[in-house]
Design goal:
The protein is α/β, with parallel strands linked by helices. Helix content is 42%, strand content 21%.
Length: 233
């Protein structure tokens, strides 16, 4: 990645279409971002580890790998870096799959450069608000740190992804009250509810693996059958 000036945000573009890369580079550099591009999933994963970008723009249709798998690998290595998927796949199921893989946002081709830049800036503003807060709160024997995206108990520290943390925060705001799946989808993911959408359930399963002593008999994230979930801190 070209040298970034102090305070300059670094954007990694993982995209194999040269014309799209050129257009993105020109527009993003004009907006003051430092831009580097890779044309394959393997190269993109190496660059993400070596260069430490502030945001990743990821195409789903890569020549060497499935973009969803690349997204999952990126997210497993870095729970915090924003990932925006760029793709021609416009079906809701594709969007949900991308979000479940760990993406923070989803832009469908052909897209407006102005809209993409607005989405990137919105993510950075959201990160700044989170970074300004050192809020911690307990759930059972765990201490959740919103700024560090961690949960800790003694010497044991586990990472929380962006969406895992946002689910916990929303449930905590309504502690001991039932929160519907629809509300969680709309407020955390910005996705319209549908009967086949299992995003919330999948993330609750992941959270229970990290949080609960007995996942089959949870004490903190309880299912409200036919409706949603509630948190018992």
């Amino acid at each position: 990645m070209s040298d970034a000036k102090d305070g300059q945000k670094k954007i990694l573009v993982i995209e194999d279409e040269p014309d799209i890369v050129r257009g993105l580079r020109d527009a993003l550099e004009f907006e003051g971002f430092c831009v580097e591009a890779r044309s394959s999933g393997a190269e993109g994963l190496i660059a993400a580890m070596d260069l430490g970008p502030d945001c990743v723009l990821l195409d789903l249709m890569l020549p060497d790998d499935n973009g969803y798998r690349v997204c999952e690998t990126l997210r497993s290595r870095d729970p915090v870096v924003p990932i925006i998927i760029l793709t021609a796949k416009a079906q809701e199921a594709d969007k949900v799959r991308g979000l479940e893989a760990g993406a923070d946002d989803y832009v469908t081709k052909p897209f407006s450069i102005a809209e993409l830049i607005a989405r990137i800036n919105a993510i950075f503003r959201r990160q700044a608000r989170l970074g300004a807060s050192d809020e911690t709160f307990p759930i059972g024997t765990w201490t959740i740190n919103s700024r560090k995206h961690t949960m800790a108990r003694g010497r044991t520290v586990k990472r929380l992804t962006f969406y895992e943390l946002e689910v916990l925060k929303l449930l905590r705001e309504r502690a001991d009250e039932a929160v519907s799946r629809d509300e969680l989808l709309e407020k955390v993911w910005g996705v319209q509810p549908s009967p086949t959408n299992r995003t919330v359930d999948n993330f609750v399963v992941k959270l229970r693996r990290k949080l609960e002593e007995d996942q089959k008999n949870p004490k903190h994230i309880l299912t409200v059958y036919g409706f949603g979930y509630k948190l018992v801190p």
